[in-house]
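Entry 14. Structure prediction run on the chain below.
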Amino acid sequence: MKKLLSLIFSVTLVLSSCGSGGSKQKTDEKSRESMENKYQVHLITVDPGHFHAALVQKSMYDLVSPDVHVYAPDGPDYQQHLGRINSYNTRAVNSTTWNEIVYTGSDFFEKMLADKAGNVVVLSGNNRKKAEYITKSINAGLNVLADKPMIITPEDFPALKAAFVTAKEKGVLLYDIMTERYEVATILQKLLSQKTEVFGTLITGSKEDPAVTKVSVHHFSKIVSGSPLLRPAWFFDVEQQGEGIVDVTTHLVDLVQWECFPEQILSTGDITMIAAKRWPTLISQADFKGVTGFDNFPGYLQKDVKNGELNVFSNGEMVYQIKGIFARVSVEWKYQAPPGGGDTHYSVMHGSNCDLIIKQGAEEKFLPTLYIENVKSLGMSEFSEKLKEALVSLPYDSLSFEAVDKNSLKINIPKKYRVSHEEHFGQVTAKFLEYMKNGKLPEWEVPGMITKYYTTTSALKMAKGN
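Output returned:
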C-alpha cells in the first residue's frame, strides 16, 4: 500500500508582513518562492538503510534546499533515518532545519524517477540493487552521491563503467563518499610522503613486505550520533551488504591510490592482483539480537548459520600491485570495541628515507596518530631539522614532533585539526557541491573510481576462487 507522508522537522521561516490576511498570504508565497529559488541543489534520499545517509545531513549547506524528498520501502530502515534527522533538527547546538518529505511504497524507486523532486540522489543502504539504482538515476539525468561501496560483485562492474560514460554524456556527476581522505593524520601522511627530503621515494616492496599496508578494524556494535546503533538484519547478509573485501576495503584501496599516486589518472591495466582471502566473523544469536533487535536469524541468513552461529564474511585481505608498487589492504570486523575504543586504522608507507606510520590503538587513546620510524639515510639530528622545515611548509600551523625512542618520532597534531568521522561526511558533501558548482569532477577522479572498484571486485573473485 502506498503512503504519502510529509514529515516536517523544525523548519521555520521568519516572515514579516502587514495589512490584511490576503496580503500576508501573497507575501508568504513570494517569500517561500524567493527562498526556494536560491537553492541550486535539492536532495533525494533513496532507501536510506545505512546510517551514513543521515550523516550527509548532519550539517546544513548554503546551496542545498532544506526540503529533502525520501523514497523508501515501508519499514524500520527509513523510520530510523528520520529519527536521526530529527535528532539533528532538535539538538541544542547547531541544530539543522531539514524538512523530510517521505514517500513509501513498493514502487518507491519508480516513483522517485517519475517525480524527479530533486537533482541529487543520495544512496546509502542495501547494496544489492545499488548498481541498478545508480544506472537508472544517471539515465534519468540525476546526479548521484553514493556511499561506498558502489558495487559489491564483479558482475556489476561493467554497469558501473557504463554509468560513468552516461554521466559524462548527460552532464551529471557520479561520486562516492570517501570520508577517509579528510582524516588529518592521513592527510599529513600523504603530504610528508611527497617531501623527498624527509620520505625519499616510495619503495617497490614485495608480496611478503609491501610498500604500502592499510588495515582497518570495524565493529558491529557502536555508538552513532550519541546513540547505540541499531543495524538492519540484512546488514549481516553479504549478498545484500557485500563482503568485507568489497565494502570497507573501498576506503583503503582509495587511500592507496590517493596517497601514492596523487591526482594521477589510473586505469585497470595498472592493477595486478597477487593474492586475496576472506574469512568470517562468528556472531552468536544473543549478539545478533543485541545489535539488530531480532530474536532469531531471519530466513535469508540461515544459509550462513553453522552450529548456531552466523558466519558473516566481513573480513578480507588482498595483496596487489598498482603501477608496480606492492600494496596490502586488510579489513576485519569484530562484534564490539574495547572500552573507550572504536574503529581503528593502521597504515604504513615505506620510503627510501623513513617509514610513515599511522597507529590508532590503546596507546594512542584510539586517536589516529602519525609516527615517523626507521630513519635510514640520515642521522636523527639532521633528519629532525629536515622534518621541522617540512612541517613548516605544510598548510597547518603549530605542528610539532617529539621523540618516542632513538629511531621513532611522533607528530603532534593540534586539537583544532581533529575532525570526527561523522563530520567527515559533511566535508565530502561540501566537496561534491563544489564539483557540482564547477560542473565537473577532477580529471583523475572517475578513472580512479573505476580502478578502485576493479581492484575490490577482482580481489573478491580471487578470494572465492572464481
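Residues 149 and 250 are 6 Å apart (CA to CA).
Filed with the rest of this week's runs.
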